Amino acid sequence: MSQTIQGALRTQPSGLPEKTRTAADFIKNSLRDYGMILSLIAIMAFFQIVTHGTLLRPLNLTNLVLQNSYIVVMAFGMLLVIVSGHIDLSVGSSAGFIGAVAAVMMVNYHINFIAATLACLVLGGLIGAAQGYWIAYFKIPSFIVTLAGMLVFKGLALALLGGQSLGPFSTTFQKLSSGFIPEFLPHAARFYPTSLILGAGVAALLVGLAVRDRVRQVRNDMEVEPLSLFAGRNAAIFGIIVYLSWLIASYRGLPNVLIIMAMLIAFYGFVTERTTIGRQIYAVGGNVRAARLSGVKTERLTFFTFVNMGVLAALGGLVFAARLDTASPKAGQGFELDVIAACFIGGASAYGGVGRVGGAVIGALIMGVMNNGMSIMGIGIDYQQVLKGLVLLGAVCVDVYNQRR
Amino acid sequence: METEAASMNAILEMRGISKSFGPVKALSDVTFSVKPGEIHAICGENGAGKSTLMKVLSGVYPAGTYEGQIIYEGVERRFRAIGDSEALGIIIIHQELALIPLLSAAENIFLAHPPGRFGVIDRDSVWQRAKAVMRKVGLDDSPDTLITNMGVGKRQLVEIAKALSKNVKLLILDEPTASLNERDSAALLDLLLEFKAQGLSSILISHKLNEISRVADRITILRDGRSVETIDCHAEPASEDHIIRAMVDRDLEHRYPEHTPKIGDLLMEVSDWTVHHPIHTDRTVIHGVDFHVRAGEIVGIAGLMGAGRTEFAMSLFGRSYGRRISGEVQIKGRRVDVSTVQRAIKAGLAYVTEDRKELGLHLADDLRHNITLANLGGISHLRVLDGIRELRVANDYRRRMNIRCSGVDQESGNLSGGNQQKVVLSKWLFTSPDVLFLDEPTRGIDVGAKYEIYCIIQELADSGHGVVVISSEMPELLGLCDRICVMNEGRFVGEFTREEASQERIMQAIMRDVRSVPDEIPAMPQGSERAAETVGP
């Protein structure tokens, strides 16, 4: 710690980095960034072994996606809500309510499924707006507003369905969550090449984007990680995606809902990391007063975070209803807890301002793999809950420990 | 200096007290004593070490974290926590009252140790004992009155009643009259004199010299963490000029970079700027002030805490403080709209807050993102961020400001105070402002980093910016500014050019004004929330 007074000022050479970081530094940094994905891989490996290979069977892998799709969909919205420093306890109830509304529209009134879906998404946005209004402009704690919302929409779903389940939906609507992408190429009985090609294409695209970024960084004389690390990491990403696509392609191909999820990952990843609005959400959650003094319209941002959450809760509700092929008054109960847990396991901070889209997805998948793996192992729902609770606590403890270090 | 005989019968003696915070020496070799039944006043500028000394005495800074001896009632004491000193009757009443607004006076008085058995509170006893101590301080209100329904003056009395309930032997009052009007202040001082007649010793920390000379038996003056003088008011009447000179007299050389100002045209002009309190909207915080800055000029705003300086700057900057704001702002001769932060930034204003951690930075985020936050438009196209450009901007400021960090992706919470301040400065420079308001720009920063900040401020002025520096450190204003405006109670009460300005003159301008406080509640210390807590209806 040098405390030189005069000399240090303005006389430093203009070279950017003072020291070049070693590969070890990069690995240490990456461990923090990729710690989540490594634990997901470790958990998958563990269950793959103890279930004697059942976990990664093509059928099971497809089920894994279908079972967790609605949690992942809602996790995108919840991540933004948590990053902005709030919480939304109403998502489960509003998802259930939207499922009920969809059923009433499509089953009772035979409204076209596209129109009904759009109407439901708009309704979801209105639900979010109704809650966000109190939170953003009246500064009522989100915990309380959404707790109220949770009760209100649970009650409305019950009222709407009269306590009865309502179904079935049309087969086209069911495709939303249980359909698979059409196959264009000639295929064998148990192999769908389009899915594999699509998967490989996405993998290639990701690697291509990484290479482009690196080239730009090198061209701008910026510090980059060692080439070996870069190449190794991208090869691993490419390999894993292609392998998983091959597995999926050898059951029934890519599920429609996986396409929706992939598009949402790309969209929300882009919004959070590459747009001004995303950056401002992090600033609001990190220090709302500093953000306001920096010219961020904090109230409006909070409001739209909840509108967005409402739309995604509606989408989650539709996916879930389509999957069950019925709207039940109990649908959606407890979803909010899984969604919130996914975000926290994925590294979001309960204090706001920190969290990543990728993390939330991985958090949801960790929960999903554990559910699925433990079910295959025959562990009862009772101890599944216990273990999930402990994993949530453990993940957050590790995160807090990392922060303190 | 004390003679050995005099110190023998002192109730309290502090010998050779030194206390450091990292490289910053807050107290060095302070000597201080209190005799039984005397009122001993402590004077000093903001940051002279008054509060630190009292925290050492009360055990907030436990024994072992400071050097020197504390002898209380003839025995050397090593307080490990505030409870230790309270048990022996040393009670401190802080400037920000430590009362819980939604509890009653009685509940507050017996908050820590309510009378009762096995943890069950004896409510009748609480009520009766509270009533008794409240009567002693001249409070007729029911002990069931909620604190939130009492005025500031009465709250102060409740604090004293609370101290009495703890069998106080040495009462310490930190700026007790700062937020009181003249009548309540006088009543409080009378009460102190009455306690003194009953044999209670007290230490009074105050900026108001007229009050001090009225009640104090002795006055100790602190300056830069040293006890420079103890005046015995019975031996010689203490003249205010004498006290002021002792408070501010110090060597100013070599702490500020040499600078020849290049002052240009009028850049910003504020006229008839009036601001009301955000909650008590009938209270005026800033009274129709006029203010101007020229290009290349560094203007200082001096004043005591709570004078309205921060409120003035923040109300200008997008109405971030106050309600019912009126007045006009012109920049480069054109009237500008500064009614929201975004518009103020667009008009060419920047405000660097006095509270980096609370209001300036997203501490969990890296310094790159902090630097660009106020001007995301500058690194994006159609709202899509350009990461490379952002990195280049951040690295550019890192180099220009000489921010010491492992990289622009370092968390800003891990930076030192000086480097954090440079990040905040970078953030505002990136908005390319015309006029920068810097509120306490070197608070909590070590000497070396201070010098660098001064250099940056001068460079900014030289490049044609107008810079307004709000500071409670007078030497800093004298060393840095081309012109100094003195604010008190929401008005400018004096203005000095660089040549005219001296610490004595600034202090005198403030003190003259303090003596003539009107009979109304003055502006509260910064932070609207806190102000709301401590102001009665």
From TrEMBL, chain A:
InterPro entries from the xrefs? ABC_transp_permease
Query: Primary place of residence?
Result: membrane
Subcellular localization(s) per the UniProt record: Cell membrane
Membrane topology qualifier? Multi-pass membrane protein
Residue ranges annotated as transmembrane are 34-55, 61-82, 89-107, 113-136, 143-163, 191-211, 231-248, 254-271, 301-324, 339-367
- The keyword Cell membrane appears for this protein: yes
Its keywords, alphabetically, are: Cell inner membrane, Cell membrane, Membrane, Sugar transport, Transmembrane, Transmembrane helix, Transport
Q: Which GO terms describe its molecular function?
A: transmembrane transporter activity
Q: In terms of domain of life, where is this protein from?
A: Bacteria
Q: Can you list the GO cellular component terms from the UniProt entry?
A: plasma membrane
Q: Which NCBIfam families match?
A: GguB
Question: What biological function has been recorded for the protein in this entry?
Answer: Part of the binding-protein-dependent transport system for D-xylose. Probably responsible for the translocation of the substrate across the membrane.
Supply the PANTHER family for this chain: ABC TRANSPORTER PERMEASE PROTEIN YPHD-RELATED-RELATED, XYLOSE TRANSPORT SYSTEM PERMEASE PROTEIN XYLH
Name of this protein: Xylose transport system permease protein XylH
From TrEMBL, chain B:
- What is a single molecular function from GO for this protein? ATP hydrolysis activity
Please give the residue ranges the record annotates as the region Disordered.
518-537
Q: Which residues form a coiled coil?
A: none
Q: Where is the ABC transporter domain?
A: 12-249, 268-514
Q: Which Gene3D superfamilies match?
A: P-loop containing nucleotide triphosphate hydrolases (3.40.50.300)
Q: Record's InterPro entries?
A: AAA+_ATPase, ABC_carbohydrate_import_ATPase, ABC_transporter-like_ATP-bd, ABC_transporter-like_CS, L-arabinose_ABC_transporter, P-loop_NTPase
Listed PANTHER family: CARBOHYDRATE TRANSPORT ATP-BINDING PROTEIN MG119-RELATED, XYLOSE IMPORT ATP-BINDING PROTEIN XYLG
Q: What is this protein called?
A: ABC transporter-like protein
Q: What is the lineage of its organism?
A: Bacteria, Pseudomonadati, Pseudomonadota, Alphaproteobacteria, Acetobacterales
